[in-house]
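Standup notes
- DV: blocked on the single-chain target, sequence here:
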Amino acid sequence: MVKEKQKILKTLIPPFLFILLIWLIKLGEVLTHTDLVMLGIYPRDARGLVGIITSPLIHKDTDHLMANSIPLFVLGSSLFYFYREIALKVLVLILLITGLSVWIGGREAYHIGASGVVYGLAAFLFVSGIIRREPRLLAITMLVTFLYGSMVWGIFPDLFPEKNISYEAHLWGLVSGVVLAFYYKGEGPQRKKYDWEVEEELEAEFQNPDDDHEDREPGPGAINKH
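- DV (later): unblocked, structure below
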C-alpha cells in the first residue's frame, strides 16, 4: 500500500511541474506586462523554429491556460502511471512531432498553447489501450473517451467560428499520439496471458508442429512449378 502511494505521488510530479511552469510563465507575463507570443511556432520561418519547443509553454490568457491545465494533469498522470517506462519519451516525441508538423504545414500565424500535447496524450492513451487489450488500459481508454472524446471535433476548422484556434496543432497532436501508440506497442505494460491461453497456443503448435513440409527440398521425383 505504501509503495502504491509512492508510485502515485511520483506519477503526479511530472505533469504538476509542467503545469506549474506554464502558470509561472503566464504570471510573469501579467506582472511584467509582456507578451511572449513570439515564442510560438511561426510556420516556415527560421525564427519560428524555437516555437517547436517553447510554444506549449505560452498561452493567450488564463482561460486558454486553464482549458489546457486540467486535461494535461489528468492525461499526463495517466501516462506516467501506466506507461512509466516510456512516458517521458512519448511526451517529448509528441511535442516534437506536433511542433515540427505545424511548422511545416501550419497557417502563417503564431501557434501557441499546449493543446497539441493534450491531443497527443489523449490519442496515445486511447489507441494504446485498444492495441494492448489490457483491462486497466482499456479502462483508461473508456475514461479518455468519456472525458475528452469530443475533442476530436477540434481538428475540423469549419465546425467552429473561432479562427484563432490552431486546428493544425490539434490534428498533428492526434496523429503523433496514434503513431507513437503503434510504435511503442511492444514496450510498456502488456496484457497478461492466462494459463488457458498458453495451453491453447501450445496445443495448436503440437497439432501443427511443422507446417513447412511443403517448403522442404523436393525428392527425386518432385516437380517445382515456376
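- Follow-up: The helical segments are 2-32, 51-54, 62-82, 87-105, 115-132, 135-148, 167-183, 195-207.
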